[in-house]
Amino acid sequence: MNSTPRRLRSLLFAPAVRPDLLRKMPRTGADAIVIDLEDATPPNAKAEGRANLNEVAPELINQIAVYVRVNDDSTEWHDDDLDAIPPGLRGIVVPKIETVGALDALQARLADRGLDDLVLIGGIETALGVADARPLLAHPVVDVAYFGAEDFVADMGGVRTPHNAEVQYARSQVALAGRLAEKLVIDQIVADFRDDDRCDRECREARALGYGGKLCIHPAQVAIAHAAFTPSEEEVDRARRMLAAYEEATAGGVASIAFEGQMVDEPVAVQARRILSLAEDG
């Protein structure tokens, strides 16, 4: 049985219609890859994508964690996608989850097909999904979630900008829902894969919000995501020294200390412990 991953700093997508690219994915160093039957596979090539999934996935599963993104349950392709999932995958990515009732039905469909041991990553990427993110992420069928900014802005009728003001609320809502459900959440894509600076900025913003990783659409984004979501040696060293000083003080009955110009009390210590936990996961 697959277990829910403790980290997914990078979740790298590749089109199911490009078996040549899929076979190169293990070389990218991504924490996991997604064979995409949804947006990256055009409507007239869904059957071809499913055939490629079954041909290529068995070659990859011993090299890297492999997921498949199916089409959502409002489409004519959803059930065929589920029927085509080969053995050995780590999990399934389901886009545009919106209602608890639909998740109940999805849970039953997966169980009927013997797929209920797969890790399920649910996409929060519509207005309704963001509005109801808390009960959706709390649903037992959802193991991990991601925020999809492009679809969300399209659903809102808004305008996508490089500075993310239009998704600030939604992005925070999904992070908060993930925290309350105690589930890992993964941040939006950067569509311009040539903009390394934006990717780095967004990754660091996302980590500050509580996200654990980044959706990647190009191999060049993987290293950027890993650098942002993995604490640096300097962060780890400072966290260790801070905690040592703080714990010595609390053992003596002192609730807060000054450490290198910073006031340290329990909330700050919790953040330091989180840094050490992330470093251990690495």
Describe the structure in your own words.
The protein is an alpha/beta fold. The chain folds into two domains: 10-229, TIM Barrel (Alpha-Beta Barrel); 233-281, no CATH class. The protein is 46% helix and 15% strand. The chain is built from twelve helices and ten strands.
CATH class of the largest domain: Alpha Beta
Largest sheet geometry: 8 strands, parallel, barrel
Helicity level:
40-55%
- Quaternary state of this entry equals single chain
The CATH topology assignment of the largest domain is: TIM Barrel
Q: What portion of residues belong to β-strands?
A: 15-25%
For the largest sheet, list the strands in their spatial order: 1-2-3-4-5-6-7-8
Radius of gyration in whole Å, from Cα? Answer: 20 Å
Structural class designation: alpha/beta
Count of discrete structural domains: 2
Written as H for each helix and E for each strand, in order along the chain, the element string is EHEHEHEHEHHEHHEHEHHEEH
Query: What is the tally of beta strands?
Result: 10
Would you identify the regions where 5 or more consecutive residues have pLDDT less than 50?
none
Protein topology:
Elements: E1 10-15, H1 19-22, E2 32-36, H2 46-60, E3 66-69, H3 78-83, E4 91-94, H4 100-112, E5 119-124, H5 127-131, H6 133-138, E6 144-147, H7 149-156, H8 168-181, E7 184-187, H9 196-209, E8 213-216, H10 220-229, H11 233-251, E9 257-259, E10 262-264, H12 266-281
Parallel strand pairs: 1-2, 1-8, 2-3, 3-4, 4-5, 5-6, 6-7, 7-8
Antiparallel strand pairs: 9-10
Helix pairs in contact: 9-10, 11-12
